[in-house]
Amino acid sequence: MADDDTQTVPFIFVREAELPDLTSRDAVVSLMAGELAAMMGLPDAQAAVSAALEREHLEPTFVSQGLSVPHGRIPGLQRPGVYAARSAEGVNWDLGRANFIIMLLVPEEKPEVHLGLLRDLMRWRFRLGENASALLNAPEADYLQSLQEAIH
What we know:
The protein is an alpha/beta fold. It has helices at residues 3-6, 25-39, 45-58, 111-128, 132-136, 140-150, and strands spanning 11-14, 62-64, 67-68, 71-74, 81-93, 96-107. Strands 1, 2, 3, 4, 5 and 6 form a six-stranded mixed sheet that branches. The longest helix is centred in the C-terminal third of the chain and has 18 residues, at 111-128. The protein starts with a helix and ends with a helix.
């Protein structure tokens, strides 16, 4: 793998605990962007939170079938980050309830990386079909493996 390829391979994290009972989509976006920024060692977690919230307010990131992919483009970021969470109850998003919330922090200068991750995640959710409900309660390792296989 070339050096440039390693910079497009995302860090992938899965939230061990189910999301807390948050009352708004913005609260979930803020929590996840802040946690992902911290796990990635970004010096300004608040900038990541602001970028994700600005994007969410521009156009909600609920895709369909219980999937939402909030994201923020971060200037100078060397490698994308993916942070997946689950909510059996679902989180109210503008266009539906999100059971799978996958936060992305991506390099602002590499839109193709961002679009590739979105494509992979949408294909992943489509392939899950009716099996998505089983993945909601699956062990963390199974959820992580499913995402790792989907993102390439």
